[in-house]
Amino acid sequence: MPDRAQAPASNELEISIIGPGRGECILIHLGNNDWCVVDSCVARGIQDSVATEYLRSFGGSPQIRLVVASHWHDDHIRGLAGVLESAPTAQFSCSMALKEQEFAALMRLQELSIVDNSGTREFARILDVLKDRPGASEVSAPFFALQGRVLLRLSASPARSTAAAVTALSPSDDSVVRAMNDLRKLMPTAGMPQGRLVSPTPNHNSVVLWVEAGARRVLLGADLEHTGRSGEGWLAVISGHIDTTRAEVFKVPHPGSPTSDYPGVWSSMLNENPIAILTPFSGKLPATSDLERIATYTNNLYCTSSGTGKPPTRDKTVEKKMRDAASARRVLDGNPGHVRLRWPIATDQAPSVELFNGAYRFQP
Amino acid sequence: MPPRLRGASSIGVWSTAESQNTTGESVVSAVRYDTAPIWPHDDQSPRLQATALRVNEAAGTPPQELPVDVAVPPPIPTFGQKAESSWLRRRQLWEGTVMETTDEGFRAQLYDKTNPSYPDEEAVFDFCEVSDEDRQLVFPGSGFHWVIGTESTRGGQVKNVSILSFRRLPRWSKRSLQRALQAADPTEG
Q1: Is the distance from CB of A298 to CB of A261 less than 8 angstroms?
Q2: A199 pLDDT above the threshold of 90
Q3: What number of CA atoms fall less than 13 Å from residue A47's CA on the CB side?
Q4: Distance CA B170, CA B175 (A)
Q5: Alpha carbons B143 and A11: distance in angstroms, whole number
Q6: I need a surface site. Which of B35, B61, B79, B159 has the fewest CB within 10 A?
Q7: Is A313 helix (H, G, I), strand (E, B) or coil?
């Protein structure tokens, strides 16, 4: 039985994918106790991000070097401000599209609004954390992610035997412009009623990451979709990607939805039969047909959980009236499962796969 | 100062106090809702007070501009309280947010206020569940309460009811939008 609270060895690469709480969280150990956290979710009834809870379970002092919000939807960033607070030296990175003044204005509007529960409020908290850091500049801007930009580079040193880097493969310039247009449309006009900001689709500004540690490569697909237009989505990622080494691990984008599937990713960026991991999203994705489709690309498909479960049963009268009034009920928050990969950075050894809290390997 | 205006509508029972500004015009200086507790969550109360104060500060606001800045409570039935004609017992309360609308209805996220430890859910409703009066309030991002309860009439008849009541949300004012854009301008100090 693997011990979840056992920290990785200093020379090990770890990719941990945890979810769904509401969304998912990815932790990357780049060796030498250096960590990167991508997105965040919280377990039902728990305040802290699963990232904070997991790293705390090791008992030491893991050093978070980079925190990335792959996009601003609240199913991806719940608890991320708390993660950043616990990592005072970590760099925070988010999509270049969020540099737009309209997005900053949307965050400011949330401070004036009586309506809660929006990803912009968590984002505003993140920016406050950056601003409140000792020695922070007046601007305290995030490190904006754009296709090809290296977000974190760790050079080899006496303490670190191999170099490591995390690079953004998206958004492309076209995607940024498109996402900015989407954001502008969200800005209310005078006389419009206040309301919660409802996320637009598709996810033009999603930040896809390429992780390098020694000869190891990992592709984290965020929620990027395939639009079929050159210059954006997966087509842009492939055309702008220059690393000839292929990834052995793939975080499947947008819970395996058909709109995020582009076969060219599998054929040009990934090893044959790579380890693919996905996190279900609120009982809707992936459908069994999605899992079966992904399983045609690889025999090594893992899911962090079988889903968010069935709605709880309430008293008979309530259940009957609920059925009369509402259809297609589904649970949004799950109890997060965990797929963990660990392998020595400097050898050819295959990763060990450990499954916790209901995570499983998909067998077609 | 005694209230000068009183009224009741689907937004609740309200009253206003009026005073004269420096130019002698009659202006509304406070708005009070008499249907307390109008919003069943403690965390909302301070915000409603703050809104009332904002109106008070803006004593120069002509009455016709009131809806712009006034937070309006949702028309929640007073379940559990006996009335002369009937009583209602609340069995279940959700707070909902509309995520998407279609021609037939809408998809919404639901937060269980009766059993807060239960997970959030999503469900689809037909527009026939929404009163004609509330129909215009259904848009992506709007909020509502969903109550399931048991109603007993004065004649002793008992029936189970499901009621969706939508929040009358305050509207964005030009001033708020300008303030937000200004605060977001990186070239502004």
Answers
A1: no
A2: no
A3: 1
A4: 14
A5: 51
A6: B159
A7: coil
- Judge whether A361 and A301 are in contact, CB under 8 Å: yes
- Enumerate residues 6+ apart whose C-beta is below 8 A from A11: A31, A161, A344, A345, A346
What does the pLDDT average to over B3-27? 44
Using one digit for the tens of pLDDT, what is the confidence trace for A160-175? 889 999 999 999 999 9
pLDDT in tens, B70-115: 344 444 555 554 445 678 889 999 999 999 999 999 999 999 999 9
The string of pLDDT tens digits covering residues A81-97 is 999 999 999 999 999 98
User: Rounded to 5 degrees, what are φ and ψ at B150?
Assistant: -115, 130
The length of chain B in residues reads 189
A236 vs A161: which has the higher pLDDT: A236
Q: What is the DSSP letter of B37?
A: S
Distance, in angstroms, between B66 CA and closest chain A CA? 12
Q: Give pLDDT, residue B22.
A: 52
Q: How far is B85 from chain A (nearest CA, A)?
A: 23
Would you give the DSSP letter of residue A316?
H
- Of A223, A195, A207, nearest to A106 by C-alpha is A195
**Cβ distance of A329 and B160 shorter than 8 Å:** no
